[in-house]
Amino acid sequence: MDHRRVNILGVGVSAINMDQALASFDEWISRNERQYVCVTPAHSVMECYGKPDLRPIFNSSGMTTPDGMAIVWLLKLKGVHDVSRVYGPDLMRNVCQLSTEKGWRHFLYGGETGVPEILKSKLEHQYPGIQIVGTYSPPFRPLTEKEDYEVVEMINAISPDIIWIGITTPKQEQWMKAHLGRTNARVMVGVGAAFDFLSGRKVEATHWIQSLGMQWAFRLFTEPKRLWRRYVQYPLFVVLVLVQALGLKKFPMET
Hints:
Blueprint: E1 5-8, E2 11-14, H1 18-30, E3 35-40, H2 42-50, H3 55-59, E4 63-66, H4 69-77, H5 88-102, E5 105-110, H6 115-126, E6 131-136, H7 145-158, E7 162-166, H8 171-179, E8 187-190, H9 194-199, H10 207-211, H11 215-222, H12 224-231, H13 234-245
Parallel strand pairs: 3-4, 3-8, 5-6, 5-7, 7-8
Antiparallel strand pairs: 1-2
Helix pairs in contact: 1-5, 11-12
């Protein structure tokens, strides 16, 4: 299923809503395709702006979803009406619910030691019948070639349909691109902090805060030391979006 992509600072964001995202999962898995999904707030777009080698990774995905409200509002301003936020934790919740009907098998890759196991238990309680067939918490350092080979072999031995990756942007997107075709999973999804939110390790912003586009402020308030460098980029994001809208600079969608 091909979705229209809208250029935001050189990142082709898929103009979709949650129902369309779920339909894509169903189509890919039923057709035995190999795809990966990037959930994309303004922070991810700015990562791609600062590191141009990331843009082809986001632009070659099966979907690059509008994860932040700022991205959704920009898509609407660009004339896309049937679009809504496809936020990582919500996408994970919806896919897990659908998978209880479809029989999809899940693997959880990411989080600090013990977090994926807690998340597995939480999801199994919340979605009775869900099949979570494996978990792995990688070290903070890069895996050696041997370690990576062993992890891929472990994943392939249990044949999940979906791998959820929670190791932050841009590491998770780089991991998915590097492992596309190496794992036998149909879909890989980089969901970042969803592991912490859905496991209960961190508090998630309420729906009304999210709907106002203020989740970034909530997260900055709760984790200022870790996240201030991320969100200090947001004023520049606004400026660059205006520069693009006025045609003062081109931002090609490299693949």
